[in-house]
Amino acid sequence: MLNKVKDYIRKHKLLNDNDLYIVALSGGAxxxxxxxxxxxxxxxxxxxxxxxxxxxxxxDRDELFCESLCQQKSIPFHRIHFDTLTYAETHKxxxxxxxxxxxxxxxxxxxxxxxxxxxxVAHHQDDSVETVxxxxxxxxxxRGLTGIQCRNGHILRPxxxxxxxxxxxxxxxxxxxxxxxxxxxxxxxxxxxxxxRVIPLLQELNxxxxxNILRTSENLTEAQGILDSIVSLYKNSKSxxxxxxxxxGSSEYILFExxxxxGFNGVQVKEAMGxxxxxxxxxxxxxxxxxxxxxxxxxxxxxxxxxxxIPEEGTYVLDEETKISVKKVPVWVSREERVxxxxxxxxxxxxxxxxxxxxxxxxxxxxxxxxxxxDIMTDRKMTLFEKRRQIVVVDAKGIIxxxxxxxxxxLCQIDDTTTEVVEIHYN
Length: 427
Description:
- This protein is an alpha+beta fold.
- It contains 14 helices and 21 strands.
- It has a six-stranded mixed β-sheet with strand order 3-2-1-4-6-5, sandwiched between helices.
- Helix 6 crosses helix 8.
């Protein structure tokens, strides 16, 4: 058992000899075995116990057991008490989820406070098999079939190479007691039903079912790694081309893996794959996805923009990222996209800076008739995202004098009679 865990730690480079680690110690067989094994290997460890006060005297018994064990082994012991039921009610989550959130938040705080490299938890092979089956029951993608991973950020799992039976056998040889959580013997929770009823039934059909599921999840982990390497090529992209993705043979999957970081779910991705150009989907994390002629474009959901009034020369803040500077200067003609030069005698203050609105028209420079701004932007092949961000400068007579960064109005162009220029900088 000791050599098996040693080899697993070495193979996956989980622990370093000189670093400090926290062992999540509940008092059950798995966490007690993990504590003993890491202590026997000579790692520098502290133990951390969470009392969730969910099982009355049994919860306090577990805490006292863990404290006593750490005293015997001269291992520093940390503990925390939680009002789990109140937390669950306040945050509108299940008691199980409340305990999970409280536990991992505490572990991370403690890790940071004492300068530990990681937190070791005692998940083993049987837990991984249960997770695969649970995900199958609930519905899952490929990642859900890879089981529990040995590393997740600062959370480390050195016992994923051994079974519950091996752990109990190890503790027997050590003549080491442990506590039993009575709720683990009840089948009212889904995981317990899988553990106590589903897996034994599957073992009747095939005694090697646990090993087979583990081997399958390992194979799928390898496949997931290949897909992750493809997705990583696009992780910093704000747009993906469907034709580019098709060369991998699984464009929908890659699109999902890319988009889930922005809060989009599988249903939205499936709908987006068949959506028309111009369709927009909004995620739970505040991002919009645009379907645009075979491309998928992501950007933060557009915030509302209050029109900005410019009564006179000066520099004005339009939003967090944009400033507008206006001043009157001697005659010159700008060739820069972000700078407009207009005949001062043809521009009437106050000016208003706002986003393009439906039905907006202007007389573009070099033309005589009005054109819809939407048509001008379409001619430039602007995406819907670019169109909705586009701003205009409107004078006091309601004339759009500048489609910012694109075109000035012919009605205020500079000519031979111009004596002064209004210069507008759009930064």
